[in-house]
Amino acid sequence: MHKTAFFQACAAGRKCRQHVQSAATVAKGAHLNWDYPHAHTLPVMPEAGDIDGLQHTNNAVYVRWCEHIAWHHSATLGLDLEDYRRLDRAMAIRRGEYDYLLPTRAGEALTLATWLCASDGRSSMERRFQLIRDSDGATVVRARWNLVCIELSSGRARRLPPEFLAVYEPAIVAARQSAQD
Q1: Cα–Cα distance between 174 and 176 in angstroms, integer?
Q2: Angle at 35 between CA 34 and CA 38, to 5 degrees
Q3: Could you identify which of 13, 63, 91, 140 might form a hypothetical disulfide with 147, taking C-beta atoms 3.0 to 4.6 angstroms apart as the criterion?
Q4: Which of 64, 72, 71 minimizes the C-alpha distance to 22?
Q5: 76 pLDDT exceeds 50?
Q6: Which neighbouring-strand residues pair with 28?
Q7: Among candidate residues 143, 128, 133, 112, the one with its CA nearest the CA of residue 175
Q8: Between the CA of residue 13 and those of 9, 129, 133, 149, what are the distances in Å?
Q9: DSSP letter at 51?
């Protein structure tokens, strides 16, 4: 999806200020084994241009998809890029970890999920991701971001503003099973 179209879609979803499941979760969630409850999901499918010289989806594509769903989730909860700019605050990735468990190929139907899993209530949060292959329910990627709140104008770490706490804290979920570290 083109970035402008994506941010317009996020803005359209901005009115929804509750933790909601996407249509994909409602339709597919019963048979997918998510690591956490209340998955925010998006369907994804590798295209020919996503395939690398090893004939599987390039790892950078998964990173891009994680960014995409993170913005989608944030906008669905009620904070989008416009809000970040207005508040002069953002959640920036301090550390990203990706576990590539199985390869995927062009045309495979996949479902990507994300959750907010932790917050210190001051300046940092944790976001997790899980990518499942629809055909067999296998987890192909797990990822984790450690996020820190920054002031956009200076790039310096800052406290989470009340608007972030009000939107993000209620969306934090606990693991269904032992942590996938």
Answers
A1: 7
A2: 65
A3: 91
A4: 72
A5: yes
A6: none
A7: 128
A8: 6, 21, 26, 23
A9: B
Radius of gyration for the alpha carbons in the chain, expressed in angstroms and rounded: 16
Q: Which residues pair with residue 116 across a beta bridge?
A: 127, 172
Nearest to 114 by CA among 141, 95, 149, 80: 141
Using the CB atoms, write b or e for 111-126: b if 16+ within 10 Å: bbbbbbbbbeeebbbb
CB atoms within 10 A of CB 133: 19
131: helix, strand or coil = strand
Distances (CA, A) of 26 to 40, 113, 138: 10, 12, 18
Structure tokens at 74: 């944030």
- The domains found in the chain, sorted by start residue, are 22-171 (3.10.129.10)
Predicted confidence at residue 105, as pLDDT, reads 97
121-168 pLDDT, tens digit each: 999 999 999 999 999 999 999 999 999 999 999 999 999 999 999 999
